[in-house]
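Project channel, design review

CF: Before we commit to the Trachelomonas grandis constructs, I'd like one complete example in the thread so the newer folks can see what an input/output pair looks like. Taking Small ribosomal subunit protein uS7c.
RD: sounds good, go ahead.
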Amino acid sequence: MSRKKKIEHKIIKEDPIYKSTIINMIINNILLHGKRNTAQNILYEALNNIQQSSNLDPLETINKAIKNTTPIVELKSRRIGGATYQVPIEIKPKRGLSLAIKLIVKSARKRPGKNMITKLENELIDAYNNTGNSVKRKEELHKIADANKAFSNIRF
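CF: and here is what came back for Small ribosomal subunit protein uS7c:
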């Protein structure tokens, strides 16, 4: 019998405009210093700009961008003897979703420019088109996991 407690996951609320939990998760990742209003304004403006400039549905754009950046495997460090191995582990869908959102927001922050709205808008469009830094980061992660496939028999 396991001594660990059962993990109780947080229930994520829907955002008020699009009625989507994914958008609320993105807002939570953009959020800095507790300024939720600012984070909401950034995301909603970026979605409005996407809708006006490319005539795409904002929810469809976000869903496809997240689908394109969701990693399938993750690397975890495992120390055996004196050596540390990068062990590839499959990711559950909920973890993959949160990693994809973090990759998109982090890549948007690293983009050159002053305005976070345009940076996020461009990153979402690039992820939708299967290009951009977040998708590149996902592919690098998969390459490293493929190279370390020999250590996949090491268990946690």
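RD: helpful, thanks. The domain at 21-151 is CATH 1.10.455.10 (Ribosomal Protein S7).
CF: Residues 34 and 138 are 29 Å apart (CA to CA).
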